[in-house]
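Re: the pair you flagged

First of the two:
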Amino acid sequence: MFSYTTRQLGRIAGQSAPLVKELSSSLRPTGGKAQLCAVIAASCLSREASSSAQVKPCNSVQATCCGFPKELINGPSCVLDHGVFGEDACFISKFKSTHVAGVADGVGGWRKYGIDPSEFSSRLMRHCADIVKAGQFDPSRPDLIIAQAFTNLSEAPRPIGSSTACVVVVHQNVLYSANLGDSGFLIYRQGKIIHKSKEQTHYFNAPFQLTILPESCENEGFITDGPESSDMQKVELESGDVVILATDGLWDNVPEKVITDVLKHVDANNIQQTCNTIALIARRLSHDDQHKSPFALKAGEYGISTSGGKPDDITLVLLYIN
């Protein structure tokens, strides 16, 4: 069985010592070097995406991202665009002193119709980023950013598909958020989570979602929510706060205590390493059959018996308020 060296694990974890120790004891797949290369490739790709989208410190905000496609465990991933991880997508943008970030999770069920779910989520996030860069938005209304992006997306040539969406705006030390579906965000302050967004679902594992159907298709049987259904929040921020914005690949697999334990060590100099660490932990737990995941616990509340993690695409954005 192939064993990883500390140097190799350091490359994966961004030199995060706690994660290097964890990976050295748990990430020893049977795929040998091929599997190691897949993990390193994803880490490098996430760094590359971050360097493209990363917002330099401006008015005390730093931001970065990381992610892994679900199918990474079967071999090297194919990330075709920055900020796109499998069927997930994200963006980080700014206009003057206002910082905006978002995540979207494409609905995988469209694959059975021969449709790539990532096309919808990635284009939705690109439209959001373009709106922010142009300054055509009200910082206190991130729901309108989603709404305008969705309107732009609906113009020909339009993609077919569905996606959740979560957008946060940091403006004058206040965070404004709009969340549609089961992606979401949390705010960490001085050792604890002070705020977490509410998940929106119609029933178990059926989140609210934006949808564009084929012109000849009727709405029956499809979930078609509008941006106006987004849950809106406003939270005052303080220096040292950390905002984690992520798709359900994180929330379904990583307990809040694990996230807070990692964030205890975050500072302005290690936000990329911290982001990588959380994403890697989520990926490992998603493929752990013995893990008592938040998803499995939630399923039990609905009378559904399941165990282990939930394999899924994982995308997160980390904002550090310094």
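Second of the two:
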Amino acid sequence: MPNFIVIVNLKAGSGEAAEVWPQLQQELKQAQIHYTAHISEYAGHAIALAEKISTEATAPTVLIVVGGDGTVNQVLNGVRRSENPNTPIAYFPAGSGNDFARSLNLTKNAGEFVKQLKETTQATPLNIFDVNITDSENPIYRQQKFLINNFGIGFDAHVVHLTENSTTKTNLNRWHIGNLAYIANILTVFKRQQPFKLTVFGEKTEYFEHAYLTTMTNIAYFGGGVKIVPTADPREREIDLIVIEKPSTPRFLKLFGQILTNGHHLQSPYVHLFKADQIRYEIEPAQYGQMDGEDMGKHRFQISAVNAQHPFWI
């Protein structure tokens, strides 16, 4: 059995992680699984923890993440920076959205999770994206990230930005109803968000004058259970890029309803889906971006991505 090291984000899931962590500790103790735990204490701390732990590992090690999609993303990026970039990751979902766990039907029951932890004998390689991000208006801005869920520009990212930078979510988190902040901001963004220009490069370059939302995704879900691309699967080595143009308000509301319910939005003439092994696209003017639920700020994004793989202990 490998060494198990836990990285916990106690603030994840409006405090849900802080509630389930003692339950998981008890189950690990009863199963006689020895582990070391580290608490993520500030934004980005999980990246530094994962990089240090993976680099210093001298025996087979599995990093257990207790938190949400953003915490998994941070741990993945920390591991990939380390001297042991293929250190496996296990995931106990305790966030607000948990879309990565949802896409893989991962359990939220502490007892079942520990049972699976013991029964797993080897890691499963899953698809991730190796993403390069630049800003055509700012040559200094340059980031290289690994992605497990999705990278969104436009409507959804605008919602994330307002929510993550408001005191409303902080106050609601005290009552474990932080998701209400997202719902309130959806209405605000619907009034404010303007269409933008998008260029998708490939064998045939395609231009969109009225893009409203564009999401590059590795999984079917975004936004805490919304099935944006029903066919996306992290077990397959494929990049999905969905582009939604803004129609009239009545048609947009119908389209939004289809996204939330039956997936028929993919049949709309306002929706375009690209599938590829690698992809490159850019937007103008500057828009808000989000990566695995984390605010990326407002930039005139230029994105290039290729498929990669990482081992997960599932």
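The first strand starts at residue 3 and ends at 8.

-B.
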